[in-house]
Amino acid sequence: MPMLRPDRRASRTSRASRAAAAALGAAGLIALAAAPAAFADDAEPELVVGGIEPVDGLKPGSTFDVPVTVANKGTATAAKVWVTYAVTRGLDFAEVPSNCWTQHVRSYDEMPERWTAVCEYDRPAQPGVLYTPETPLRVKALDRALDDELRVKVDWNAPWPDENGDDPVAGTAPAVKLAETQTGVAGSKRVVDVPVTSVNTADFQVTGAALKGSVGETVPMKLEFTNAGPAWVRSTTVKVVVTPPAGTSVVKVAAFCRADGHVYYCGMRQPAYNEGGHENYTFQLRIDKRVPHAKGSVALSPEARPFDPDKTNDKADITLDVTGGDPTGTPGGPGGSGTPTSSPTDGSTSGSGGSSGSSGSAGGGSSSPADDGTTPPDGNLAATGSPALPIAGAAAAAMVAGAGTLVLVRRRRNQNPG
Q: pTM of the full predicted structure?
């Protein structure tokens, strides 16, 4: 095979391309060398807040001041300073200067309800200088105060109101200026959260139910959790533990509840922890059989709650009165049996489960296959007990006799066609 000679024109083009690439690379190196000077012109302020310590031992109705220091750790001067104060619902602002505006923000995305105050200070903040408001903002503890939080944030750009809050309201107290200070400690963060605890109590309690119905009937079981106050509770791991009465099956589980055997553990939404807040749990219970003196319970989980000294209302009974007919089935065994399935409507689980023992109707009639747990998935009756054997044998004998008669008739017709 003949060898192909390289194209000289292509070689010249390749050399030209390499030269152009080298020139571009040199230009890039020159640009990189000049970059530090360019970035130096883009210096920005870096404001941090400090001087805030946790507050403990408050009493409802008392007040405390919030000492704040602002420092600029950046390389450029901030033209203005904005300091934002946010408190949870057990606290409020005693008075708000006219250079500040306040906003009430509703609870959302698992964030608790809060009140904010944004204060604008028309004074430049130079690098390396420490500043503080001439008069600290004063905060008061409300009757519902217990385990609260104070957040302080500093900005060199104006912050926007929260879109989930009410319209901002301007303060009415005399304006407060930002002044240089030689005392205090410069912080290291733009946002600081500090706990604020008060001496107070909250009474968590549960309410049971009195159920009534006949065997085979499905009845609602309505339970309730309440925070009777006076304090709200910001965070807790408490659960509501539900044990249905014996002789029943749960066919629909309440929202926020999950099954663990015959016991159900229920959570709650954040507003339930507010003073006067409550959470309702509605189960659908089928009465499978009468069990003498059957009783269930609803109770709070056993975690420590030092704010709740009253334990007398931490548990309540769920009673069951089965009406009509004679007792059916055998006593004993926990209630709430069954395997509920997920409900597409409210996120709870629903479904029906079998019961232990057969259940007759309230008037003493025959039992229903749907309630006694003896109907297999394909709908055929199961052969349970000796009475079914003679019936099955008689049916088989009848079929054999019928077949023999049919064969005899056909033979006679074949022998006598006319």
A: 0.68
